[in-house]
Write a structure and sequence with these properties.
Length: 62
């Protein structure tokens, strides 16, 4: 794993891409959608490994 990013198989990659497209269709920017899905993937991986991961995401837009 590079940068704490889990390796995804082809099916998992397709699910992630579909989720990103769905979020973009709902109005999120591509960057926001990718960041959200990446966070969800890391969180699910951490739970699977039994590790609690704390991630702070700053929102610069106010």
């Amino acid at each position: 794993m590079l940068n704490n990013t889990p390796t995804l198989n082809h099916e998992e990659q397709q699910i992630a891409a579909d989720r990103i497209h769905d979020l973009m269709a709902k109005g999120l920017s591509s960057g926001e959608a990718i960041m959200l899905v990446a966070h969800e993937i890391r969180e699910a991986d951490a739970k699977k490994r039994g590790v609690q991961e704390v991630v702070e995401i700053e929102d610069d837009e106010e």
